[in-house]
Amino acid sequence: MLKSKFSKTAGRTTAARQGSGNGGGGYEAVGWEFRPGGMLVQKRNSDRNSVPVSKIKVRVKHGPSCHEISISPQTSFGELKTTLAGQTGLHPQDQKLVYKDKERSSKSFLDVAGVKDGSKMVLIEDSISRERRVFESRKIEMSLDSKASIAIAEIRPQIDKLAKQVATLEIEIYGGKKAEEAVLSSLIELLMTQLLKLDEIVAEGDVKSQRREQVRRVQKYIETLDRLKVKNAANKVKAPLKYKQMHSSEKMPFTAIHFLLRGS
């Protein structure tokens, strides 16, 4: 029966209605749409010039409390849940709204369900939904922690290698020898790169502590290199040739990675 009725309506998709603002001779197109539940209703006009729909007041009972909400009848139950979340502290997904002894879907609309001014409904906390949401949230956190832990594990060996180079330079420079300025600058740049990588890692709990530990290590080595630059500038005796620099014809710039330490 509904299919037959709709086929007749679909043949003209819009209905012609005589307008009162066009001198009696104008016509206004009225569209149709399906609403939840299969009901065919007049399509709502979203034009700014359309007459605004008057709000209604509904009373929502939640435990011993009762909340009066002023809302448009064309609002969905999902939007009503979002409004109630601010007053009850319940996440919208953890709410069940019961109207006329029937739980209403978040996608359903108030006016379609018959909600009117002064209507009453009951809000119930959905403990199963809350537990499921918390569980899913924890799964996501565990996944992020796992990825963060792997990222830190990949960065740590790089920091260890740079730390050895800093330690060797510290012995040389405080022993009175002078190192190339480029070596010190390059080491600082490489450590800063590792610091930026660590900063991009999102972690919580124990993994966050691991990340913080590596950040402190990098900062300590950078501070050491800054002090070494001052000491190195005062030294006059150059260190014996034990660094293998790249030839000037090569395109890559000279960095601390491009020298070999004695005994390595």
From TrEMBL:
Keywords tagged on the record: Chaperone
Gene3D superfamilies per UniProt: BAG domain (1.20.58.120), Phosphatidylinositol 3-kinase Catalytic Subunit, Chain A, domain 1 (3.10.20.90)
GO cellular component, one term: cytoplasm
Disordered: region residues: 1-28
Domain BAG, chain residue ranges per copy: 151-229
Pfam families, per the entry: BAG (PF02179), ubiquitin (PF00240)
GO BP terms: protein stabilization
Domain Ubiquitin-like: 54-124
Protein name: BAG family molecular chaperone regulator like
GO terms, molecular function: adenyl-nucleotide exchange factor activity; protein-folding chaperone binding
InterPro entries, alphabetized: BAG_chaperone_regulator, BAG_dom_sf, BAG_domain, Ubiquitin-like_dom, Ubiquitin-like_domsf
PANTHER family named in the record: BAG FAMILY MOLECULAR CHAPERONE REGULATOR-LIKE PROTEIN, BCL2-ASSOCIATED ATHANOGENE
Native source organism of the sequence: Actinidia chinensis var. chinensis (Chinese soft-hair kiwi)
